[in-house]
Amino acid sequence: MKCPFCGSPDTQVVDSRVSDEGDTVRRRRRCNVCDKRFTTFETAEVRLPQVVKQNGQRSEFDREKIRVSFHRALHKRPVPTQLVDEAISRILQKALAIGEREIPSRQIGEMVMTELAKLDKVAYIRFASVYRSFSDVEDFRDVIREVSKKD
Ligand SMILES: [Zn+2]
């Protein structure tokens, strides 16, 4: 991308983030010649996919629902908001990267679990226990085992 100030093609991306709606990427760029900074907005050609629940019902991809899941799982856990935001952004980016019109809700749940496992083990177990609705003690042991392996 050319610098709008001096016209140099030598610019670089210094920061990149997905908008709350998940359909725009905002990039901060710096010109390597005049050192000025500017912002570009990139709109995805593919919108966030529709979410398909297990009962076949479709709904809009809801970033807020994902955020609520994180907050519930991370209740009173020492995890900085910024890390949570980054985790949610990664999920949105992955959902966009799939490039499909639909995504199974199960797949989003798995992505949330993957991110929680990296953030906080207690939160991961909390989420997994609700999400997988453990039917017996053995299921619970499996998750504990998974968490232990990640050390
Ligand atoms: Zn420049």
What is the strand and helix layout of this fold?
Layout: E1 11-18, E2 24-31, E3 37-43, E4 50-52, E5 58-59, H1 63-73, H2 81-98, E6 102-104, H3 105-119, H4 121-131, H5 137-149
Parallel strand pairs: 4-6
Antiparallel strand pairs: 1-2, 2-3, 4-5
Helix pairs in contact: 1-2, 1-4, 2-3, 3-4, 4-5
Bound molecules: zinc ion.
Residues 3, 5-6, 8, 31, 33-34, 36 line the site of zinc ion.
What descriptive keywords fit this protein?
single chain; alpha+beta; 2 domains; three-stranded mixed beta sheet; elongated; binds zinc ion
Major sheet size, sense and barrel closure: 3 strands, antiparallel
| Arithmetic mean pLDDT | 86
Small-molecule components bound:
zinc ion
Helix and strand element order: EEEEEHHEHHH
Query: What count of structural domains?
Result: 2
- N- and C-termini, Cα separation: 42 Å
Strand coverage percent: 15-25%
What is the overall silhouette? elongated
Strand tally, please? 6
Query: Portion of residues in helices?
Result: 40-55%
Q: Major sheet: order of its strands?
A: 1-2-3
- Rg estimate, integer Å: 19 Å
Low-confidence stretches: none
Please identify the structural class as seen in this structure.
alpha+beta
Question: What oligomeric state do the depicted chains represent?
Answer: single chain
Q: How many helices in DSSP terms? A: 5
